[in-house]
Write a structure and sequence with these properties.
- This protein is mostly helical.
- The protein has one domain: Up-down Bundle (Growth Hormone, Chain: A).
- Helix content is about 80%, strand content about 0%.
- It is found in: Cell membrane.
- One of its GO terms (cellular component) is plasma membrane.
- It is a multi-pass membrane protein.
- It comes from Sinomonas atrocyanea.
Length: about 475
C-alpha cells in the first residue's frame, strides 16, 4: 500500500513537472532552435558555393551555363519540395514530415563528398543540390506552420522573423567558412559538404516533437489537440486561439452536415478560390519580388562589385550579408511593436529607387555605389523578414502548409531566375540595364504590398485567416 502511494505520488510529480512553465518554455526554445537550424542550413548551402566557384570551375571545366545550373539547383529543388511537402504536411501532419524532411537533407548533403570528376560531375552535383533544395523547401512549408501554430500571438512575428536571421547568418557563415577553408587549401567537395554536420545534429534533435494542435483540429481530433496544448503551451493567448479554431471547425462541420458546404482536403486549386486568392497572390508575389534581386546580387557579389571598382571577397560577400543580417534583426525587434505593414511597404519603394539609381547612374563614384548596395541589402532584408511571417499567418489551418509551400515555391522561381540570369545579363546587356531590371521587380513588389499587405499584429491565426479570406 505504501509502495502504491509512493508510485502514485511519483507519477503525479512527473506529470506536474512535464506540464510546468519551465517545461513549456524549454519546449518552445527547442522548437524554435530546430526550425532556426533548418533555415540556417538553407542560407548555408546557398552561400557555400560562392567561395569555391573558382576551384569548381577549374576542376570540372565549368562554363557559365553549368555554374548557373549548379548554383540554381537548390532553388529549383525548393520550387518542387515546398508545395509537395506543404501538401504532405497538411495531409499527414507536421510532426512526421518535419523529421522525414531533415533525413532527406542529411542524405543529400553527405552525397556531396562523393561527387565524381569527369563528364557526369556537373549533372551529379546539380541533382544532389536539387534534392537538398527539395528538403529545404520542406522546411518552409512544414516548420513555418508548426512554429506559428505553437507561438503566442504577441511573439509570433518575432519568433518567425528569427528564422530569417538564421538564414542570413547561415549565408554569411557559409561565405566566411568557405573562404577560410578555401584559403587553407581544403578541397571544394569537403567545403560544400560541411552542411552534413549540422544536418545530422538537427535530424537527431527533431525526434520526440509533438504534433501541432491546429493540424489535429483540422482532422477533427480535438481532444488530442487540447491535451497537447495543456502539456506544451503556456500562453493564455494560444489556448484562446486553439479554442477559436475548435469553434470554427465545429461550425464548418455543422454546415457540412446540413449540406450547405463541403469540407475539402487541401489542394493547390483551393489556393485560388474566391476565399483564398488574395492570400495566395499577396504572399507569392511579395516573396517573389523580395528575393529575386537579393539572390542575384548576393550570390555574385564579387562580380557585381568588381564591375563598380571594388574587389570582392570579404567586402562583398560578408559586407552585404552582414548588412542584410542587421536589417533582419531590426525588423525582428520591431515587428511585434510597430506591426507588419509599416515594415513591409516603405522599404520596397526605397529599394526600387536604390537599384534604379545604380542602374541609371553609370559613372557614379565607386564609394557611393558601395553605400547604395549596402543600403539595399539592409532594407531589402528588413522587409524580406515578412516573407517568413505573412504566409504562416494569413492562410487557414487546413491550407497553411500548402499555402506557405506554394508561396515559397513561387518565390524560388524568382530566386532561381535571378541567380541563373544575372551572369548572362551582365555579359549580354550590361550591368546598368541588369540593375534597372532588378529595380522593376522591386517596384512590382511595392505596388502589390501597397494594395494587399494586411496588418496582423497581435491577432490570433483564426482571426487573421477569417478576415483575410473575405
Amino acid at each position: 500500500m505504501i509502495h502504491s502511494t509512493r508510485t502514485a505520488a511519483s507519477a503525479d510529480a512527473s506529470i506536474s513537472k512535464e506540464t510546468s512553465s519551465t517545461f513549456k518554455r524549454r519546449f518552445m526554445v527547442r522548437l524554435v532552435a530546430v526550425f532556426i537550424g533548418g533555415m540556417f542550413l538553407d542560407g548555408y548551402i546557398l552561400g557555400i558555393i560562392g567561395p569555391v566557384t573558382g576551384p569548381m570551375r577549374s576542376d570540372l571545366q565549368l562554363d557559365s551555363l553549368s555554374l548557373g545550373m549548379i548554383a540554381a539547383g537548390p532553388l529549383a529543388g525548393i520550387f518542387v519540395g515546398a508545395p509537395l511537402a506543404g501538401w504532405a504536411t497538411d495531409k499527414f501532419g507536421r510532426k512526421p514530415m518535419f523529421l522525414v524532411d531533415m533525413g532527406l537533407f542529411l542524405l543529400a548533403s553527405a552525397a556531396q563528398f562523393f561527387v565524381a570528376s569527369g563528364d557526369g560531375a556537373v549533372v551529379q552535383l546539380a541533382i544532389i543540390r536539387f534534392l537538398m533544395g527539395v528538403a529545404i523547401g520542406g522546411e518552409y512549408s512544414i516548420g513555418g506552420p508548426l512554429l506559428s501554430e505553437f507561438s503566442p500571438p504577441k511573439l509570433r512575428g518575432r519568433l518567425l522573423g528569427l528564422t530569417l536571421i538564421a538564414w542570413y547568418v547561415g549565408f554569411m557563415m557559409a561565405f566566411i567558412i568557405g573562404t577560410l577553408l578555401h584559403d587553407a587549401g581544403t578541397p571544394w567537395r569537403l567545403v560544400i559538404g560541411t552542411s552534413t554536420i549540422l544536418a545530422l545534429v538537427l535530424f537527431l534533435a527533431r525526434f520526440g516533437l509533438p504534433e501541432s494542435p491546429s493540424w489535429l483540429i483540422t482532422k477533427g481530433r480535438r481532444e488530442e489537440a487540447l491535451a497537447i496544448a495543456r502539456r506544451y503551451v503556456e500562453s493564455p493567448q494560444m489556448h484562446h486561439s486553439i479554442t477559436e479554431e475548435i469553434d470554427l471547425r465545429r461550425i464548418q462541420e455543422a454546415q457540412a452536415a446540413q449540406g450547405r458546404t463541403k469540407i475539402k482536403s487541401a489542394s493547390v486549386g483551393m489556393l485560388f478560390s474566391r476565399q483564398h486568392w488574395r492570400a495566395t497572390l499577396f504572399t507569392s508575389g511579395f516573396w517573389f519580388c523580395a528575393v529575386t534581386p537579393y539572390f542575384a546580387i548576393a550570390t555574385f557579389a564579387d562580380d557585381v562589385l568588381n564591375h563598380f571598382g571594388f574587389g570582392g571577397g570579404w567586402a562583398g560577400g560578408v559586407g552585404l550579408s552582414a548588412l542584410a543580417t542587421a536589417g533582419v534583426v531590426t525588423t525582428v525587434l520591431l515587428i511585434d511593436k510597430l506591426g507588419r505593414r509599416i515594415l513591409t511597404v516603405p522599404g520596397q519603394w526605397l529599394c526600387a529607387g536604390i537599384l534604379l539609381i545604380i542602374g541609371l547612374w553609370g559613372n557614379a563614384p565607386a564609394i557611393l555605389v558601395l553605400v547604395l548596395f549596402l543600403a539595399f541589402s539592409y532594407f531589402n532584408a528588413g522587409y524580406t523578414t515578412l516573407t517568413q511571417v505573412y504566409p504562416a499567418e494569413v492562410f487557414p489551418g487546413h491550407l497553411r502548409g500548402i499555402g506557405m509551400g506554394f508561396a515559397a515555391a513561387f518565390s524560388r522561381i524568382g530566386a532561381a531566375l535571378g541567380t541563373f540570369a544575372l551572369p548572362w545579363a551582365i555579359s549580354n546587356i550590361g550591368m546598368g540595364p541588369s540593375m534597372v531590371a532588378a529595380a522593376a521587380v522591386a517596384l512590382l513588389g511595392a505596388v502589390l504590398s501597397q494594395w494587399l499587405a494586411p496588418e496582423t499584429k497581435g491577432r490570433t491565426l483564426a482571426e487573421i485567416s477569417a478576415n483575410f479570406s473575405h
